[in-house]
Amino acid sequence: MIDVLPGTDRRPTDLYIDLPFRLYRHDPLWVPPLRADIRKLMSPKKNPLFAEAAIEHFVAFNEAGVVVGRISATIHHDYNSRFGEQHVFFGYFR
Predict the structure, then answer these.
(1) What is the distance of C-alpha 4 from the center of its chain?
(2) pLDDT in tens, 28-79
(3) 45 contacts 39 by C-beta, under 8 angstroms
(4) Integer Cα distance of 7 and 25 in angstroms
(5) CA 68, CA 23: separation in Å to the nearest integer?
(6) Whose CA is closest to 49, among 57, 58, 41, 37?
């Protein structure tokens, strides 16, 4: 069983950011992003895209409470209006 929580509170946000660091810690070719940069991208106060798009981040936990995945979903209202589309964009999936 997998539980999915929105990454809006401090703890899920930290777990969301930390997941790739845990997954790729032994990969010598992985270049980690700056955690502060990812936190800024996730912040409605610091990322101007939040003014024109609805963005949600989600963290998936297994039965033992271990983070096993993450994803973000974005509905960019200006893009959809401009192009007459109804798209949802997904990112940060691991």
Answers:
(1) 12
(2) 999 999 999 999 999 999 999 999 999 999 999 999 999 999 999 999 999 9
(3) no
(4) 22
(5) 9
(6) 41
pLDDT at 7 over 90: no
Per DSSP, helices labelled H in 1-94 are 10-23, 35-41, 77-83
Compute the distance between CA of residue 93 and CA of residue 39 in angstroms, rounded to an integer.
16
Q: State how many domains the chain has.
A: 1
Q: Which domain holds residue 25?
A: 3-91
Q: DSSP class of residue 2?
A: -
Rounded to whole angstroms, the Cα distance separating 45 from 40 reads 8
CA distance 6 to 49: 18
Predicted structure pTM score: 0.84
Tokens found for residue 60: 């998936």
Q: To which residue do tokens 């989600």 refer?
A: 58
